[in-house]
Amino acid sequence: MNAIANRYAESLFEIAKEEHAVKAYQEDMEKVQEVFVDSSIVRFFSHYGVTDELKMSVLKQSFEKQVGTYVYNFLLLLIKKRRIAYIREICAEFQSLCYDYFGIKVGKVYTPYELSDKELLRIENAISVKVGKKVKLRMVIDTALIGGIRVEVDNHIYDDSLSYKLESLKKELLRK
What keywords were assigned to this record (predicted)? Predict the structure, then answer.
């Protein structure tokens, strides 16, 4: 992770803790993250040919009523300091800090197809029981998996894929 992004994310997180509003800040930063997932928006706000006044005007129209005052001012600061190009990394690091704060483990679920929200929630709940903490999973489509899923949380792998089962069966048959 980028050192600049880390510093900004940690600073905002400290303010969120001081304000006793970590959850509210997290929700605001999720909104910001949803907007800046579009690389053309990041390019617009990062472009040196676009005046800071225009950037701040667009930011005001987009975010002033959507997020809290501190988060809005934080975004303005990123524009003034020409650090808005790091917004995706800042959002990701901020979310990571929030998850740590709330005791939530973050991981990935690899699947050969798109999972429904209900299926993803069931998997998160099952892994949460195994880990002993709340788990938030990000879905990654892996067409190399024939079927089933593979979950990675904190360098632990929970493999329930068909590929893994076939490989295990092969090893067992070769031993006999």
Answer: ATP synthesis, Cell membrane, CF(1), Hydrogen ion transport, Ion transport, Membrane, Transport
